[in-house]
Amino acid sequence: MTRWLSDDEQRTWRALVEMNRLLGEVTDRQLQHDAGIPVAYYAILVALSEAPDRSMRMSALAEAVEGSQSRLSHAVARLADRGWVRRRRCDSDGRGWYAELTDEGFEALQAAAPGHVTAVRSAVFDVLSTPQQHALREAATLISQNLRPHPVDVT
Amino acid sequence: MTRWLSDDEQRTWRALVEMNRLLGEVTDRQLQHDAGIPVAYYAILVALSEAPDRSMRMSALAEAVEGSQSRLSHAVARLADRGWVRRRRCDSDGRGWYAELTDEGFEALQAAAPGHVTAVRSAVFDVLSTPQQHALREAATLISQNLRPHPVDVT
DNA sequence: GGGTCTTAGTTGAACGCTCAAACAACTACC
DNA sequence: GGTAGTTGTTTGAGCGTTCAACTAAGACCC
Predict the structure, then answer these.
(1) B90 CB less than 7 Å from any atom of strand D
(2) What domains are there in chain A, each with its CATH number?
(3) Which residues does chain B have within 8 Å of residue A125's beta carbon, measured at their own beta carbons?
(4) Rounded to 10 degrees, what is the CA torsion of B7, A136, A66, B44?
């Protein structure tokens, strides 16, 4: 027998789904329009920009942005087309590749960041009190931990 | 000057993004694998099943599932291909169309629902206390309200 | 040192989404 | 009763994602 959702739970679930959708839409559109960057790519650029030498192994990068290798592979190919990322063989492991953020990529990221941050702030942080933010983070963290194979720092 | 995110805010934002992604992935995969239904289509079937006569005007349906008309149009076309939805002209308005859930569609929905509910329950409701659920709903509702043109019942 | 297994990464097709453009039917106005 | 504008819906191209299949290089082992 299925245990259906109560009205209360259903409202919570729908609110969650709607927030998800809206948040995704808004950030995506903002980045796409203001900077011509799909959100998915933005995350990749951010991860690279934070890495030493602005470069990472493909698999490490995939893990960092929580995406499949296939997706990363396609994405990096596109980013390389735009000249934002360069690929380099790995000396120590002939199978491996590095993705490296180019200067152009870094500039594109710098140009895109302010608008993105502003959008995020006005969508989330301007409408929630600090306790509300923490409660949201707590819930999000618990759900994520439960969902992913390797739980992560809860701080 | 951009007001960047504090460490605290950044952690919240990342937790939120990750939850979003995982939640989407999990529910999508579950439905796709167990029932061959993309989440997006599931929402459409649900909306239709709850409507009088199991049928709705295209535009009303689009609004109900919070999607663009274009998306709805594509989606209904696919659902019609599968025989889950039927389209009927609108008598009173020659431009209008109704989408109507077929018996096959209703059965597909009934078959898919238990697995979906179970997935949702174990992803969200099994890991959050009732106060945590309410806090999450509160935050999600506030964010959604702020993001969408027409705020909605807060209950 | 030649099998077999595993790991790193790529590829291509299928699919849903978005966007902009199109089309058709209704409405208003003069 | 045309013509201009609006509304309801569809269409097609472009794009990112997923999935399954594939290549190729390391690792292991006898």
Answers:
(1) yes
(2) 20-147 (1.10.10.10)
(3) 5, 9, 12
(4) -150
- Which tens digits make up the pLDDT trace of B10-33? 999 999 999 999 999 999 999 998
Q: Are B124 and B22 in contact (CB under 8 A)?
A: no
Tell which B residues from 76 to 135 touch A, by Cβ distance under 8 Å.
113-114, 117-118, 120-128, 132-135
Q: Which residues of B touch A23 (CB under 8 A)?
A: 16, 20, 143, 147
Residue B56's H or E segment, with its range, is strand B55-57
Percent above pLDDT 70 for chain B: 95
- A35 contacts: CB under 8 Å, gap ≥ 6: A108, A111, A112, A115, A116
Q: How far is CA B48 from the centre of its chain?
A: 12
